[in-house]
Amino acid sequence: MKHRIVLALKQIGEGEGKGDVLRDILVEETGLSKEELALRCSKILTAILHSYADFGISTIDKFTHRVIRTFAKDLQLSPIFKVELDEIKVLTEVIDLIIDKVGVDEEITDLILRFALTRMEEEKMWKVDRELLDFAQDILKEKSIPYLKALRGLGPKDYQLTIKEYKSYVHGFEKEVKEQAKYGLELIKKNGIEHSSFAGRSKISKFFENLSLGLFEKIEPTQDVLNNLDKDNWFSGKCPAEQKALIEGIKVELLICFNKIDAIKKEKHGTYIAANEILKPIYSLSLLNHIEQKLASFKKQEKLLNISDFNQMIAGIVEREPMPFIYERLGDRYRHIMIDEFQDTSVLQFANLLPLVEDSLSRGQENLIVGDAKQAIYRFRGGEVEQFSEMPNYQLAENQESYLYKERMQTLAVQYKEAFLTQNFRSLPIVVNFNNEFFEFAKQQEELTPKISSIFREHQQQSLASKKGGYVRLSFVEGRGEEKALAYEEEVLHTIEECREDGYLLKDIAVLVRKKKDARAIAERLKLEGIEVLSSEALLLKNDSAVNFVLSFAQWIFQPQVHIYQKEIIEFLVHEERLKGSMDENLSNYTGDGKMIELLSKIGLELNVEKLKLKASHEFFEAIIRAFQLNEQYNVYLQFLQDVVLDYFKSNKATLSQFLLWWDENQDQFSISSSEGLNAVSIMTIHKSKGLEFPVTILPYAQQKIGYSGPLRKSYIWTETIPSLSTPLKYAMVEYKSDLKLSDLSEAHDEELAKTQIDFMNDVYVAFTRASERMYIISEEQSAKSRANRKLNLPDLLAEFVFHSGKELDENGSISFGERLEKQQKEPETESGLTLEYRSEAWSKKLRISRTSLAEWKQSEPIQYGIMMHEILGELEDKADLEQVLSSYELEGSFSSEEFQYISEKLKQLLSHQEIAIFFDGNNKSRRELDLLSKGGKLLRPDRVIYFEDRVAVLDYKTGEKNEAHHQQVNEYMHALANTSDQKLEGYILYTETEELVKVSNDRSNQQLRIF
Questions:
Q1: b (16+ CB within 10 A) / e for 610-619
Q2: In sequence order, which ranges of 608-675 are alpha helices (DSSP H)?
Q3: pLDDT, tens digit (0-9, with 9 covering 90-100), for 854-868
């Protein structure tokens, strides 16, 4: 960005043609002559270059990080704190630590148990850690800060008191309703009246029956029931005369009963719904305190901070001090402040920057905030569009206000001037005019919150007079399910071919979608048609067959009993024609316990699975890649997979099994990098496209809805609790759903609904304003419905816009604005071919790593050999483990293949002797290199102590010649062990070279013993 600013100043100052457009705008805005403007730009450029360090451009987070880092000591932080960008990773570790307390900490155990039982009662699939993680992510959101502060003082008793009060109200309501419903139902049954005798499809008798069964969600009678009662219409058309007489006899009582239920509903139902919704996540809420405390403790211990912590730390100082000490020096340095993309600035970020703005304004300096409220699509990151659209009158929520904040905003308001930028430099006139007309129509929809009219009040734009043309096409596809999905793909494919015919290159085209799965579907279809694509979704590692095969094979190694991994391995081998025969035949032959080894043998692969398990992380996967010859052709996905493996094990002390589990949970995050110059169609989400522009944009799946689920859903919202139920809990989190509209929490519901409507409109605006020359919108046909019953969605909005425009769809279900004009440009030059190789070779063939210290390395070879023999025997728990222990030494490069052969044969021969093998029988308990302390304080360490049923034996290994000192040494061990057991004590020396076992006589004496 610095480069762009300096370049623009240079171009205007020197009169270069490239700066003409910006120069003309500045001349018009400032009233300066071109000569005066050029002179000022030259002076500004000179001043910047002479004091370049004072010319700062930074993200707010980066700026805040630098402040925190500089004043770490003042803020009582470790000077070596680390910044962790992945907040979810830290939170996951903290939740794991809390769950580890189950069975240890009584309070946490009780809370998690109740939480789990609640989820089971709701008949929802659950994993405690995953459910807690989803719920606890709200801790990281700025808007949760004041609510969490208010709840920090609450303890388990406060929550239990709240639960008791709310449950009492819920049960009381249900009891009252049930009693009345049962009374009405009993009247009907006692008189022998059938359900079919009552009028209507929805019958009054079923109303009573549902409520008597506890189906309280059906307390709202249907319109059919209400109409029949209002008209005194009680009988069905085929009701027998005797049944009519029976109904006539009780209908007054039934009506009284119905009215009593209605009165209960009107008085208490709103509170009942609210209490129920607050109760559902209350155990999760009570756990938030524990999670928050543990999170703070974990960060302090690990000396790390999340990005979100920076703003909170500064906020704690900013809200207390007129000019916080951390800004005193910075205030003198930065005289002018400009905040760009202000609509995405969080409330806390701006509150923290206000002292700098206030200080600058008080010195008579100018400041600037720039943004577009219509492009505020990052509410989930803490952005509040009202902060910009209602500037300078926007006020923080009551629980975030402070007198200093009010004073700062008043200072800003006095000097606040607003200007709207109406010139569109990006798009051609037809595209600009279409958006002007569409959003003017959309903002007037009566279903939308009035705030949208405020946000879009100055949305009209003008294109540059020098630009002409442009093209927009709306298409409406038909069908349902897979048929509709295929229709979207076909329309995208047709549109791309149309643009190519008109001279556009693939890299001129962008496909924008809402969901990642839609991006994958379009990418896969285009690749099938031979069209190059550029997309993080299309380039995900998990979408490559070779990567999936390697990971499935790794999973099978550690979980051979899981047949799904066997199936995935077989499918890959059949697809790659490594296995002959049909898929079904191979799945039948090789899926099952022990079948995979048979399959590997069939394809000529003798793989030692146990040996493979012992390899290091990166080498483990390399061994699989080499074994199946996947390295013979370059595969960039495999290369990136190995990069992920290396990065993971650099940062985590984990096993391969833990990596595989981690991969399952995080595989959506990893994709290969690609060249921006590639001639390929870009496929991305609308959020990622913000700030970008493309000659052609295609918007398939234009079917966004305003509802309670899907991309626009916000799972939980904060709300005040029920005033009439006085409890210590003042705030609660509830799931955002339609039921809230009928409850005492309707205000919170309506506020969230207004925000989702703004999200909807802004999301559509961003999508519709990315195109510079052509825009293709592909939506779906909607069934006819009454306006009163409709839920606002994009397909309806587009259809009504077309209707009001006075145009009609053509035979293909499309409507166009403007004309398709050919674009003249050269085809991109073909890049020269570059052959890449996947180089993979076992490091053990090239390197040998010494297991001994430098001093030992310099010793003579016989001694080195003796040390090795001694170590291997010391590793053996059971003689059956010999092969595995030898393999681990070979893998680590401890000796050459010749040395391995010699030592392997020597040890096998040694353990073939029965009298020696009994000392290496895993059935007998043994201790290796047991530390003993003699009476004189000497530390002793026998090679092996074996506890037989009838005796205890000491065994020492020797590789050299016999020596009397060996007997004295073993005797010393036996003396030290004398007081540990009443069993018979024996001593032995094993001479490994001669394969001789020598028994040592024992002079049993009274010695003191200490074992550690």
A1: eebeebebeb
A2: 609-613, 617-627, 636-651, 656-666
A3: 334 334 456 667 777
Please report the pLDDT score of residue 847 as a whole number: 56
Kindly report, residue by residue over 446-474, the tens digit of the pLDDT. 888 888 888 888 888 888 888 899 999 99
Sheet holding 1010-1011, edge to edge: 939-940, 932-933, 1010-1011
HSE-CB at 118 with a 13 A cutoff on CA atoms is 20
The predicted structure's pLDDT at residue 494: 95
pLDDT digits (tens, 9 = 90+) for 468-489: 999 999 999 988 888 888 999 9
State how beta strands 925-928 and 944-947 pair.
antiparallel
Are 475 and 812 a contacting pair, CB within 8 Å?
A: yes
**Quick one: residue 481, left, alpha or beta (phi over 0 = left, psi -120 to 50 = alpha)?**
left
Q: Tokens 């499935």 belong to which residue?
A: 552
Q: What is the pLDDT of residue 178?
A: 94
DSSP designation for 31: -
Partners of 697 in beta bridges: 510, 775
Query: CB of 595 within 8 A of CB of 567?
Result: no
- What are the two backbone dihedrals, phi and then psi, of residue 698, each rounded to the nearest 5 degrees? -120, 125
Classify 991 as helix, strand or coil: strand
pLDDT at residue 712 in the model = 37
Exposure on the CB side of residue 592, measured as CA atoms within 13 A: 7
Please state whether beta strands 932-933 and 939-940 pair in parallel, antiparallel, or not at all (unpaired): antiparallel
- Write down the number of H helices and E strands in the chain: 39, 23
How far apart CA 566 and CA 554 sit, in angstroms, is: 11
Token pair in block for residue 702: 């234009």
pLDDT-derived band at 838 (thresholds 50, 70, 90) equals low
CA–CA distance, 777 with 696 (Å, rounded to integer): 11
| Rounded Cα distance, 756 and 766, in Å | 15
DSSP state of 832: P
The DSSP output letter for 829 is P
Which residues on neighbouring strands pair with residue 776, listed in sequence order?
473, 698
Q: Both tokens of residue 204?
A: 């009054």
Is there a contact between 610 and 522 (Cβ–Cβ < 8 Å)?
no
Residue 280 structure tokens: 């559902």
Largest CA distance in the chain: 120
φ, ψ of residue 81 in degrees (nearest 5): -65, 150
Looking at the predicted structure, is the pLDDT value of residue 787 above 60?
no
DSSP secondary structure string, 578-594?
A: SS-S-HHHHHHHH-STT
Token pair listed for 352: 């923290």
Q: Tens digits of per-residue pLDDT, 194-229? A: 888 999 888 899 999 999 999 999 999 999 999 999
pTM: 0.71
Listed in order, strand segments (DSSP E) in 528-596 are: 533-534
Average of per-residue pLDDT across 820-825? 82
pLDDT at 331 over 60: no
Percent of the chain with pLDDT over 90: 20
Residue 19 tokens read as: 């700066």
CA distance 253 to 804: 54
* Degrees to nearest 5, angle at CA 230 with 226 and 232: 115
Characterize 721-755 residue by residue with b for buried, 16 or more Cβ atoms within 10 angstroms of its Cβ, and e for exposed.
Answer: bbeebebebebbbbebeebbebbbbeebbeebbbb
